[in-house]
Amino acid sequence: MKKLVSLLLGATLMVGVLAACGSTPSSAPAGSTASAKTSTPASGDKVTVRMTYWNSEETMADLLAYLETAVPDVKVEYQFIDNTNYATIVDTQLAAGEGPDIIVEAANSALKHARLGYLEDVTVLSEKFSDAGNAIFTYEGSVYALPGVSWFEGIWYNKDLFTENNIELPKTFDEYIAVCKKFEGIGIKPLAAGLKSWEPMLKNSMAFVTAEYLTAPEGKGFGEKYRNGETALNGTWNTYIEKWSEMITEGVYTQDMTGIDHEQAMEEFTSGKAAMFCSGPWDLEAILAKNPDLNLDMMPFYGTQPSDGWMIGGPGGGFAVNANSKEKEAAMKVLEAIATPEAQKALVANNEGGSSYLVGLDTGLPQYYNGVETTIKAGNIFCPWDEWGAAGGAHQDYGVEFQKYLMGEQDIATTLANVDVVVEELLAK
To answer: Which of 109, 116, 120, 90 lies closest to 26 in space, CA to CA?
Structure first.
């Protein structure tokens, strides 16, 4: 779909890699490395651990170089495999008590492998990362993978249009709607959106629910309950979606936008006909190619209360340790090194436009992201459907149902209930 998404996410933000390396499970408790089975290298030799990932080695080059010096007694053997084969091969190897020592896991596979006892508990190390990054790798209260570099989507905006018209940046959802009305009042389209696709309303509405509910005390844990069949969208999200639907009732999203695609919306934005455009780093090059003089920045999505804001996105993968690894202690040392600012900066360096979930880390994004610097530092990048486990693919159905809602074909309850049915069916398989 887009350059960064294909790099980080694969089909649903998930893929993987593998290599053989395993034995019998250790008797050590989950998360412990003290009694892990580790072969003792001869003097001067290194212990070799295998790390598998769906991203090419060039996207990991700086991190691998850093690990050579940070963990000098461990050699990280990097293995890539195309995402089309990842799930089948890794599942097969782990089921046989084998597989790589370090596995880069997608959200759904991490949950499955944690449930089956294939992964080490890395909760202690995960405390260095934000809740938003850890959430999708959490199973029954424990974390089983450290979040890697993220993808994210915010709201690109034309700084000159804001300045020239004396319009201040919003800090809440209500202020955002007011900003849209001001632009509309002076004949400038507030938000360019290609609603021919199911994606824009999916991400925009979920960003609001994230800020308003999913990251609030009452909403934390919703994703785990949802994938366990203990709750539903309909009956839980209705109030929040009703508030968000001001995007429709106030004319920010309009029915005619269902005839506009992503490229057409981008053209409206880059030509100055629209003040804002929702997208991510994958579109930066194309935006600047269309208008090199565009004074561009990004803002996050907001809920009704002032905050650092939120962006839709998530880890492209998480670093996990195979519970059956013969080199578990060495593998955990590598993860400890990965959970450092130096390693995270190295990882981001080869993944332009990505960001780290390490709390408080400034990875030095380009000037075009000044408006979301605080958001990224806070780790406020979250993808709700990543918590849906095997039903994560239903996010597309969610987007389609919201297209129907926009067109007036159904109400909010029906829209959410239809998604619940799809999720229930996927989880039952």
So the answer is: 120
CA 257 to chain centre: 26
Fold of 35-149+316-367: D-Maltodextrin-Binding Protein; domain 2 (3.40.190)
CATH topology of 35-149+316-367 equal to that of 152-313+383-427?
A: yes
Strands 311-315 and 381-382, bridge-based pairing: parallel
Helix (H) or strand (E) holding 142: strand 142-143
What gap in Å lies between CA 215 and CA 143, rounded to an integer?
Answer: 17
Identify the pLDDT of residue 44: 59
pLDDT at position 421 is 98
38: pLDDT confidence band, cut at 50, 70 and 90? very low
pLDDT-derived band at 161 (thresholds 50, 70, 90) equals very high
**Domain residue ranges in the chain:** 35-149+316-367, 152-313+383-427
CA dist., res. 396 & res. 342, Å (int): 36
Asked whether the CA dihedral 162, 168, 170, 171 is positive or negative, the reply is positive
**Dihedrals φ, ψ of 66, to 5°?**
-65, -40
Q: What is the DSSP letter of 307?
A: -
283-288: which pairs have CB atoms within 8 A and are 24 or more residues apart? 283/2, 283/156, 284/353, 284/368, 285/3, 287/156
CATH tag, 152-313+383-427:
3.40.190.10
Average pLDDT over residues 335-340: 98
Q: Among residues of the chain, what percentage have pLDDT more than 90?
A: 78
SS3 letters across 163-193: HHCCCCCCCCHHHHHHHHHHHHHCCCEEEEC
Which residues have CB under 8 Å from 426's CB, separation 6+? 390, 391, 393, 394
What letter represents residue 52's amino acid?
A: T
Upper half-sphere CA count for residue 186 (Cβ side, 13 Å): 15
Q: What is the pLDDT of residues 357-388, one digit of tens each?
A: 999 888 778 899 999 999 988 889 999 999 99
Tokens 């074909």 correspond to what residue? 409
Indicate the pTM of the whole model. 0.79
Q: Which residues contact 189 (CB under 8 A, 6 or more apart)?
A: 183, 268, 273, 274, 275
d(CA 155, CA 166): 19
Q: How far apart are CA 322 and CA 182, in angstroms?
A: 54
Task: Render pLDDT for 48-86 as a digit per residue (tens, 0 to 9).
Answer: 999 999 888 999 999 999 999 999 999 999 999 878 888
